[in-house]
Amino acid sequence: MNISEVHESTKLLVDGSLQCSRENGMKTIILASASPRRKELLEKIGLRFEVEPSNYEEDMPSALEPHEFAKKISLEKAKVVASKHKNAIVIAADTFIIFGGQILGKPHTEKEARKTLETISGKSHSVITGFSIIDTGTSKALSKSVETKIYIRKLTLAEINAYVKSKEPLDRAGAYAIQGLGSVFVEKIEGDYFNVIGLPLSALTEALKEFGINIL
After folding, report:
1. pTM of the shown model
2. CATH for 12-209, among 3.30.390.50, 3.90.950.10, 1.10.10.60, 3.40.50.300?
3. Which of 15, 59, 94, 192 is an active site residue?
4. How many helices, marked H, and strands, marked E, lie in the chain?
5. What is the C-alpha to C-alpha distance for residues 92 and 85, in angstroms, rounded to an integer?
6. The pLDDT of residue 19
7. pLDDT of residue 21
8. Considering only CA atoms, which of 189, 192, 186 is closest in space to residue 204?
9. Active site residue 15
10. Quick check: 51 and 8 in contact, CB under 8 A?
């Protein structure tokens, strides 16, 4: 299942209140992702950073366990961007859904979206996000993963068809957006809500402390 998102490398300065201050000087913080949702989450915690999408082409998991696969992909994404900077902190992430032991890909057509929604209707699935942080000045790297379990209520055919027509399910992991209209399908969550959106903020901010970055 191809879960790749290949984007042109662009940079965008994001306003915020936090800067990375270290003994060896200021380090630029870079989000190696074009996801607007990840950008918004980092803005919410007051981080000052640049956006530079990684052009790493994700491969398929082989014998790797899902958490290890998520960490591997996020690390490879981070490495691509890190290789272009000498004094930066690079953050990258990868999020996907596990259903029945398999990665559930992003639907690109209405037919695929409808099939995915019918599959997860009335059942639970897991959302796994792997994230990696690299300090290009010291070569220090860290990778972690977080899992959240989502319970979807039983959906009617009319609900599925109406949601598909909204176009929101397209190119979304699991064919729904928990922060959007798809929220009405979610019966229960076990774990980090922000992890489902794309970045587990609690785990990420704790990890950033190891790189001298304190949010509070």
Report:
1. 0.84
2. 3.90.950.10
3. 94
4. 6, 10
5. 14
6. 43
7. 40
8. 192
9. no
10. no
